[in-house]
Design goal:
It is globular, with a radius of gyration of 14 Å. By secondary structure, it is of the alpha/beta class. Helix 1 crosses helix 5 and helix 2 crosses helix 3.
């Protein structure tokens, strides 16, 4: 598949029962302000809803935000569904309250990057730009 034209498209999602979305909204706004197209799914999304949205919106990446402690289960479910739907070209990254010991396991499963508390929006934007397809003409 060739490089798509236009801005990077990112679905920002809050999987599971976690009801705190301030961080996800901050990241969504930072990505948008950096020229990316952002689709924010809102709270309480199932992995199926997240993957469906990413495919329907022709997203380049999915950013998952979780504070509830269910990251191993929910991040893995998103990765597994992307594989099942033959959409493995959609990059998955995440952030939130995730213990350092869990990060290598998540990366082994297929999560491209994990941002923990203290990560700056600048660092996240730079990582997305460096790791998701390049914006046309950039």
């Amino acid at each position: 598949m060739g490089v798509a034209a236009g801005p990077i498209r990112v679905v920002v999602a809050k999987p599971g029962l976690d009801g705190h979305d301030r961080g996800a909204k901050v990241i969504a706004r930072a990505l948008r302000d950096a020229g990316m197209e952002v689709i924010y799914t809102g709270l309480h999304q199932t992995p199926e809803q997240i993957v469906d949205t990413a495919i329907q919106e022709d997203a380049d990446a999915i950013g998952l935000s979780i504070l509830s402690g269910a990251h191993n289960t929910l991040f893995s479910a998103v990765i597994d569904l992307l594989k099942k739907r033959e959409a493995e070209d959609i990059l998955v990254f995440g952030g939130g309250i995730i213990p350092e010991d869990d990060i290598p396991l998540l990366k082994e499963k297929g999560v491209a990057e994990i941002f923990t508390p203290g990560a700056t929006t600048t660092a996240i934007v730079e990582w997305v730009r460096a790791n998701v397809r390049q914006v046309a003409g950039a």
